[in-house]
TrEMBL record:
Residues 108-446 form the GS catalytic domain. This is Glutamine synthetase. GO terms for biological process: glutamine biosynthetic process. GO terms for molecular function: ATP binding; glutamine synthetase activity; metal ion binding. SUPFAM superfamilies: Glutamine synthetase, N-terminal domain, Glutamine synthetase/guanido kinase. It comes from Kytococcus schroeteri.
Length: 446
C-alpha cells in the first residue's frame, strides 16, 4: 500500500468518514458512483470493486462484463453537502481495469492518460483552464413546457438579492472546500446563465474537477430549490453554454507557447498547435460537441464559434490568442471556444491535445488570422478567405469523425466504435421527432 492510500485510510478514521463514494465516468461523460463502507476501502485499493461493465454505457458486451473500479487515492476529497447534518462523505475517482489488471479500453480517464503520455514523450505537459457556463432554472416548467430562468439578469449584472449571486457563492465555497480552486465567477449573458472559471491545472486534474464541478453545481441548486443545467442551448433566442478552455504546453517550467517578440508572443510551437486545432476541428467536433443540441448553440449566434478560424481579439473565432498579460511569459496560452460544458471532458481534452500535437509533429502552417467578425461575412467572403464551417449538425460531425484516423487512434477502437454507434442512434431518434416549430408553422398551412 502506498503513502497516498495510507493517508486516505488515516483521514477517514480521524474525520469519522462513514461512507465512501467511488466515481467514474461512462463514455458519454455521465458520472457513475458506487458506495462502499470505509472498512472495505483497504481491500478496494488492492483488489478493486467489481461491477457489471455491460450495464454501463459503452463499457463492455455481456460476455466480457467483469470490470473493476480501482480507487485513485490522489483524488480523495471529503464532501459535505451544504446544510447536511450527517458526517462527511469521502469520494475518489477510479481507474477502470479488466480482471487481469490491464486498463479497460472504455475508461475515459485512461483515454486521456494515453494522450497525456504521448505529450510527455514529446517533452510536454498539457495544462487547461476551463470557463464553465450553465443555467439555473425554476423547478417547474412554464405552461408551454419551457424552462423558466431563475433570474432575468444579463452579462456581469450584480443582483444584490439575486439567487444566482448567492448560488455562486455557495457553489464556490463547496468547490474550494474540496480543493478545487476557482478563479472567477459572474452572471453570463442569458437570463439564469452563470459562469464559474476553474484555475489552471494539468488536463487530467481539470477533467476530474469538471466532473466534480457539475455534481456540486447540481447539488447546490437542488438545495436552493432550483435546477442546474449544462445543456448547450436550453433557450431559443439566447446564448448557449460553452466551456471555453485556455490551453498551454509546458516543457518543464517553461511555457512552450511563449516567445518574446513574436506576434502575440506566440511561439512556433504554439502556432503549430493552433494550426493542428484548426486542421482537425471538424473531425473532433462530435467529441467536443457531442449532442444534437450542441449544434444549436454553435449555429445559434451569441458569440458561439461556427467557423474554423483563429484571431487575436476576435470573439467570433474558434481559437483566440488572448493577451491579458503580454509581459508574463508563463501566461501565454490559446483559448478554444468551441467546446461546450456537456462534453465528456476526458475524451474532449484527449482529442484536442491530439490535434494540437499533430500540428506540432507535422509542422502545420497557421493560416491567416481572421480579423473581421466571421458571423458578419457572407458565405462567399468566408470561402474566399479559406474559412470552413464547423459541422452544422451532429450528423455532419459524425460523418467527419468516421473518416478520422486521428480520433480513432486517440480514443481507441472500443470507444471510437461505441461513440459513433451511440451518436448515430441519437441522430436517428432526433430526426424522427416532430418539433413544436413544425407543428406551429406547417399544421394549418399545408
Amino acid at each position: 500500500m502506498d503513502r497516498q492510500q495510507e493517508f486516505v485510510l488515516r483521514t477517514i478514521e480521524e474525520r469519522d468518514i462513514r461512507f465512501m463514494r467511488l466515481w467514474f465516468t461512462d463514455v458519454l461523460g455521465r458520472l457513475k458512483s458506487v458506495g462502499v463502507a470505509p472498512a472495505e476501502l483497504e481491500n478496494a485499493f488492492t483488489e478493486g470493486i467489481g461491477f457489471d461493465g455491460s450495464a454501463i454505457e459503452g463499457f463492455a458486451r455481456v460476455y466480457e462484463a467483469d470490470t473493476l473500479a480501482m480507487p485513485d487515492a490522489s483524488t480523495f476529497q471529503v464532501v459535505s453537502w451544504k446544510d447536511s447534518q450527517e458526517p462527511g462523505i469521502g469520494r475518489m475517482f477510479c481507474d477502470i481495469t479488466l480482471p487481469d489488471g490491464t486498463p479497460s479500453p472504455a475508461d475515459s480517464r485512461h483515454v486521456l492518460r494515453r494522450a497525456l503520455q504521448r505529450a510527455d514523450d514529446m517533452g510536454f505537459t498539457f495544462y487547461t483552464h476551463p470557463e464553465i457556463e450553465f443555467f439555473l432554472f425554476e423547478r417547474e416548467l412554464d405552461a408551454g413546457g419551457h424552462p423558466v430562468p431563475l433570474d432575468d439578469a444579463g452579462y456581469f449584472d450584480h443582483l444584490a438579492q439575486g439567487d444566482g449571486h448567492d448560488f455562486r457563492r455557495a457553489a464556490i465555497d463547496m468547490l474550494e472546500s474540496m480543493g478545487i480552486p476557482v478563479e472567477f465567477s459572474h452572471h453570463e449573458g442569458a437570463p439564469g446563465q452563470n459562469e464559474i472559471d476553474l484555475r489552471y491545472a494539468d488536463a487530467l486534474s481539470t477533467a476530474d474537477n469538471i466532473m466534480t464541478f457539475r455534481t456540486v453545481v447540481r447539488e447546490v441548486a437542488l438545495a436552493q430549490g432550483a435546477v442546474a443545467s449544462f445543456m448547450p442551448k436550453p433557450l431559443a433566442g439566447h446564448p448557449g453554454s460553452g466551456m471555453h478552455t485556455h490551453l498551454s504546453l509546458f516543457e518543464g517550467d517553461r511555457n512552450a507557447f511563449h516567445e518574446p517578440g513574436a506576434e502575440y508572443q506566440l511561439s512556433i510551437t504554439g502556432r503549430r498547435f493552433v494550426a493542428g486545432l484548426l486542421h482537425h476541428a471538424r473531425e473532433i467536433s462530435a467529441v467536443t460537441n457531442q449532442w444534437v443540441n450542441s449544434y444549436k448553440r454553435l449555429w445559434g449566434g451569441g458569440e458561439a464559434p461556427a467557423h474554423v478560424c483563429w484571431g487575436h481579439n476576435n470573439r467570433s473565432a474558434m481559437v483566440r490568442i488572448p493577451m491579458y498579460k503580454p509581459t508574463k511569459g508563463q501566461s501565454s496560452r490559446v483559448e478554444l471556444r468551441s467546446l461546450d460544458s456537456a462534453c465528456n471532458p476526458y475524451l474532449a481534452y484527449a482529442v484536442v491535445l491530439a490535434a494540437g500535437l499533430k500540428g506540432i509533429e507535422e509542422e502545420y502552417e497557421l493560416p491567416t488570422e481572421a480579423e473581421d467578425d466571421v458571423w458578419g461575412l457572407t458565405d462567399r467572403e468566408r470561402r474566399a478567405l479559406g474559412i470552413e464551417p464547423l459541422p452544422g449538425s451532429l450528423s455532419e460531425a459524425i460523418s467527419a469523425m468516421e473518416q478520422s484516423e486521428l480520433v480513432a487512434e486517440t480514443l481507441g477502437e472500443h470507444v471510437f466504435d461505441f461513440f459513433l454507434r451511440n451518436k448515430r442512434e441519437e441522430w436517428k431518434a432526433y430526426r424522427a421527432q416532430v418539433t413544436p416549430y413544425e407543428v406551429q408553422n406547417y399544421l394549418k398551412q399545408l
